[in-house]
Specification:
This protein has 368 residues and is α/β, with parallel strands linked by helices.
């Protein structure tokens, strides 16, 4: 049996590692265990409950107004006894959250082989996204197995000098999770289509990036306010991240507006239903840039750079930045041009076929 410890602490990590956890448990060669840092307590617990995952270890790191220093230092301190007690044959982390980097560094300190799921994503700007760009670069260079979701991500790793024998192109486990979620929808909601000119046109918005806190998030909110006032047929739904740096400006600038619904975070299955029902998504989320093309929903990315360039190349997403006028212009262009909308909605999904977890499990077993 290959003793395996999965370490994660945020909602996106949990979503993307849940199908891999299932795959490892179904494969008789692995003995998987789960350690959560609980970097995001409430959002993490939603995902654990939906996927039926009970952690073997819970570090309970979540604290009000915690800093990156707090998460990193306390995470390392609490992971040390877990790794010594478990003595795993390998550690698995996912993505670019601080929990992933802390898990990678803790494994390195005890010379435990590391697998990094979703390796090779890069913007080329160390400060955007912050601190995620640095987290994933450092994690990739500590990993024995780099599971790149696409060929583009593989090429990024090769350019940084990571040997080809440490890289596998697996697809993205986000699609594995999404296919699972779609199969568990009780009453899937059909999305309004642009060509039908519906009276209700739903726009889904998410925004939580640390580098957008302050003036850039305010610009995004002002753009949403303009869109709601200029387009009476729009209904804008914005599930709010728990971080007060998001909630305060959003409530101040958008609270009480007609046709703008500010709601609490949804559980994963409910959020998938909302994505499927949306005509358009405006987001700075990495995971949504992967999921929406699979659902056939066009995406406008509220960032200056993105590491998910494959969606841009495929034509399923557009990078619109955080400037008020540009967001309004690009949104209205897409909503008022049926041919452009159709091209984006029908663009191929570049992030795999939903079998990434199986490929990862087989690669780990064959090399161990």
């Amino acid at each position: 049996m290959i003793r395996t410890l999965l370490i994660f602490g945020t909602r996106p990590e949990a979503i993307k590692l849940a199908p891999l956890s299932y795959e490892l448990r179904a494969d008789g060669r692995f003995e998987p265990r789960v350690c959560v840092t609980a970097q995001h307590r409430q959002l993490l617990d939603q995902v654990l409950n939906i996927f039926g995952i009970t952690p073997d270890y819970d570090l309970e790191l979540m604290r009000p107004d915690q800093s990156l220093y707090d998460i990193t230092a306390e995470g390392l301190r609490r992971l040390e006894p877990v790794l010594r007690r478990e003595a795993p044959d390998l550690v698995i982390v996912q993505g670019d959250a601080t929990s992933a980097f802390v898990g990678a560094l803790a494994a390195f300190y005890q010379q435990i082989p590391l697998a990094h799921v979703e390796a090779g994503l890069r913007t080329g700007n160390l400060w955007r996204p912050y601190p995620e760009e640095a987290n994933r670069i450092l994690t990739d260079h500590l990993a024995r197995w780099c599971f790149a979701p696409t060929e583009h991500a593989r090429q990024n790793l090769l350019r940084e000098g990571i040997p080809d024998e440490r890289i596998w192109v697996s697809g993205n486990t986000a699609i594995d999770a999404l296919r699972w979620a779609l199969s568990h929808q009780e009453e899937p909601e059909s999305r309004s289509r642009q060509e039908n000119r519906p009276e209700r046109r739903l726009i889904l918005v998410t925004g939580h990036r640390r580098e957008s806190f302050g003036p850039e998030l305010e610009q995004i909110c002002l753009a949403l306010r303009d869109l709601s006032r200029r387009n009476p047929s729009l209904e804008i739904v914005y599930p709010l991240h728990p971080n007060p740096n998001v909630r305060r400006p959003v409530h101040r600038l958008l609270g009480g507006l007609e046709r703008v619904r500010l709601i609490e975070p949804l559980d994963y299955l409910a959020f998938v239903r909302l994505m499927s029902a949306a005509e358009l998504i405006l987001t700075d989320s990495g995971g949504i840039q992967e999921e929406a093309p699979f659902l056939g929903v066009p995406v406008l990315v509220l960032r200056r750079e993105t590491e998910r360039v494959e969606a841009l190349t495929a034509g399923a997403a557009r990078l619109v930045g955080t400037e008020r006028e540009q967001i309004v212009r690009q949104t209205e262009l897409l909503l008022n041009d049926p041919q452009l909308y159709r091209r984006m909605a029908e663009a191929p999904s570049p992030y795999g076929d939903g079998q990434a977890s199986r490929r990862i499990a087989r690669a780990l077993a064959s090399t161990l």
